[in-house]
Write a structure and sequence with these properties.
By secondary structure, the protein is of the alpha+beta class. It has four helices and 21 strands. The protein folds into two domains: 62 residues; 197 residues, Cupredoxins -  blue copper proteins (Immunoglobulin-like, Sandwich). Strand 14 and strand 15 form a beta hairpin. Helix 1 crosses helix 2. It is globular. Bound molecules: copper (II) ion. Copper (II) ion binds next to loops.
């Protein structure tokens, strides 16, 4: 059965190549005529311009809408104010299992670039495909600290630690979870159905926090080490773009996307961080 299916697919691809090959050959002939400044004969153009060419454009648009007409948004998240970066957490009595210190990732600034900012796009017609993601509890620390995923994505939560953890999610539109993780326990699968910013904590180790931004579409990015982000393959149009940070809040802008790269920066320097001791 599998072999028959395989042959059928090969023949389909072969037929498709033949079709495009014939089409290109026709176009090439026409191009030579145009180059020679010869007037185009109406009978020569009839089949190609009336049927093949529009059909080919529609086919390309349907198969590769991103390639046919799309733009992208890229930019930087800036934080240039002088600020005391939060200190690492002392793990106290859990030193043996967790290590003496756990990094504090609530505010990470690298040469005016702000990291872990989730950039999302609002657009009723924007869709996309949910993805597969992994969240690990390692050295008493969530990896990664900030995640973003489209609604209905599959999130697998692991624990690589030799001690117990308890993962507690805080959400309103999605059902909150409270899961106990023992050492070597199997991964727990979780799915968020509604767009929302979900906070995750461990009830056993107060410093353990993570954030999961559940989005309505697949057009998002998380600012990296130098605060840079890029959202590719956006259909041209007018959108609202949001940038969210866990202790600096959110900022929004309106952006018009064309066929090329659109550059947009967010500056959070005017905002004082609201860092809790926890
Ligand atoms: Cu824990």
């Amino acid at each position: 059965m599998r072999l028959t299916h395989c042959f059928r697919e090969i023949f389909k691809i072969r037929a498709l190549f033949k079709f495009f090959g014939d089409l290109l050959s026709t176009w090439h002939d026409e191009f030579v005529i145009i180059k020679a400044n010869k007037p185009l004969k109406p009978e020569k153009l009839t089949v190609s311009t009336m049927i093949y060419r529009p059909l080919f454009s529609i086919l390309i648009f349907l198969l590769f809408p991103g390639i046919a007409f799309s733009g992208s948004i890229k930019g930087k998240i800036i934080y240039s104010s002088k600020v005391k970066l939060p200190k690492s957490f002392d793990t106290g009595k859990y030193k043996k299992a967790c290590g003496a210190e756990v990094p504090n990732e609530k505010l990470l600034v690298n040469d005016t670039g702000l990291m872990n900012v989730v950039v999302t796009i609002e657009g009723k017609k924007l869709g996309g495909k949910p993805g597969k993601y992994k969240l690990d509890q390692k050295n008493c620390h969530y990896l990664p600290h900030v995640m973003a995923m489209m609604k209905d994505s599959e999130l697998k939560i692991h624990s690589s630690d030799p001690i117990n953890h308890n993962l507690h999610s805080y959400s309103f539109d999605n059902d909150p979870v409270n899961i106990m993780f023992l050492p070597n326990q199997d991964a727990y699968e979780l799915e968020f159905e509604e767009p929302e910013i979900v906070k995750v904590e461990c009830d056993l180790h107060h410093w353990m926090t993570a954030w999961i931004v559940v989005t309505d579409n697949s057009y998002f990015d998380i600012a990296g080490q130098k605060g840079g982000f890029k959202i590719p393959d956006l259909p041209p149009g007018k959108y609202t773009i949001n940038a969210w940070h866990e202790v600096l809040g959110s900022k929004s802008k309106t952006v018009t996307v064309g066929k090329d790269d659109t550059e947009i920066n967010f500056d959070f320097s005017d905002v004082a961080p609201q860092v809790s001791k926890k």
